[in-house]
Amino acid sequence: MMKIRRVLSRVALLAAVSLPFAGVAHASQVTIAVGSEASTLDPQKRDDGGERAINDNIYETLMMRTPQGELVPGLAAAPPTQIDATTWEFKLRPGVKFTNGEPFNADAVVVSVDRIIDPAFASEQMSYFGTLTGAEKVDDLTVRIKTSGPDPILPSRMYWMKMVPAKYSSDPKFATEPAGTGPYKLASWTRGQEVVLDQNPDYWGDKPTIDEVHFRFIGEPGTRMSGLMAGELDVITNLLPEFVSSVPKSAAVQGVETAVIILSTENEATKDERVRKALNLAIDRKALADSLYGGYATPTKGQLVNPRAFGFNEAIEPYPYDPAQAKALIKEAGAEGKTITIVGEAGRWLKDRELIEAVGSYWKDAGLNVEFKIEEFGEYLNQLFDKNHRPDAVFVVNSNELLDADRETSFAYQAGGTASSNKDEEMAEWVKQARVETDVAKRKELYAKITQKAHDNNYLVPLLNMQDIYGFSQRLDWAPRVDAKLMVKEMKVSE
Q: What single DSSP character describes residue 410?
């Protein structure tokens, strides 16, 4: 417990840290603090929470979710129709335009689909779109999306794919000067400080009540809180649990994020299954949930699949906390004193650095030498998604907005997947089969096999299922969403 207290004491000091802020916002403006700067404003390139927070207000998708999570039409005029086993047809809303003047139509959908699945484009979001093979135009307002096999969750996938303009998306300026169909458009991007959005005057939907949005990049949680308490910020993400009662308003929702460490099965430090098992047994997850997160997190049940997602394996037991067995396994494997490197970042997720350091401390107690590589977020993403040079251990808080196990299994379980670090071809084949299996019972059985095998082989170190904790100003009226999207059109302010 001492290691957690030391981490907490360092975090508490951050509350006293402050940076200069701009003047107090007026009624038609809000200022939102996020933990990391966007690495790009191309909405299809990276799997980057900073980018997503901004682009969720600039771009839109064929399907969308209500704040409570119900899947409903977005840029689609109605739910899609399944033409055959591998074809879904979408009817599109008429009269919608991108902010650069291009029409939103079937051509834009075709380009959006083909662009994101193009291997040369190397999108980090491919774990969301593994079945897609392309799209074809029927007429200006009708498009058909094709899949490699039957895909029971295709409508959910199209809730995640942001639509881009057919022509302008190939312009080099697109990554820094975005053009979407959403309620807001880019006004300015001051590197290292903030992105400002203005209301889109030609937006096809209901007009938002907020005219201007400032997204400020503030990695330190204490600094975010200082800005909120000073009245300079309206929303802060990742509010420290110990300060929930100190802010003007707060809200916590059970999110769709799971903290996990992905282990390499090939690297010298982690290739021995006994070492990987020891890394799981060495961690007291309940102590982390209670002491580090104040109960705003729960220990995982031995898997990355979110408990709310289809395919969650109820039969898997949580990894026990057994430091004695962890030490014995490290000794048995001849790994005492070996160095294991954890790659991570700081500021993107709630208490991410503190969680990484606490886990590393447990591993040191088990007999390993632990090195930390806490990277700037863009470089962290480079290492997370580098399939050719896998870290010994890489920390990530993985989200599952699709509410289906395909998201996690294609991200971190499937060999060759977006961030996977194993070479288990049998398990990879099961992931492929589950993706196109339409029999619900058989699909669930496949996910049970996948998650059980990964658990037994200790390919991952699942840690905690996280709650999303927000602090916001007294003048802000807003209910956080279950998918953690910061949709400014759902916010209202009063003086």
A: I
For the cut 70, the answer to whether the pLDDT of residue 119 exceeds it is yes
DSSP string, 239-303: --GGGGGGSSEEEEEEEEEEEEEEEPSSSTTT-SHHHHHHHHHT--HHHIIIIITTTSEEE--SS
| Euclidean distance between CA atoms 313 and 335, whole angstroms | 32
Helices 352-365, 2-13: axis angle to 10 degrees equals 160
Q: What is the pTM of this model?
A: 0.85
274, 304, 273, 255: which is closest to 420 by C-alpha?
A: 304
Residues 213 and 30: beta-carbon distance below 8 Å: yes
Tokens describing residue 140: 């200006």
Distance CA 303, CA 316 (A): 8
The single residue listed with the structure tokens 């591993």 is 363
Q: What is the DSSP string of 300-354?
A: --SSSS-TTSBT--TTPPPPP--HHHHHHHHHHTT-TT-EEEEEE-SSSSTTHHH
**How far apart (Å, rounded) are the C-alpha atoms in residues 475 and 336?**
56
- In the block, tokens 């004695």 appear at 324
pLDDT value at residue 494: 87
Segment 17-64, tens digit of pLDDT: 334 344 444 459 999 999 889 999 999 999 888 899 999 999 999 999
Mean pLDDT over each residue of the chain, to the nearest integer: 93
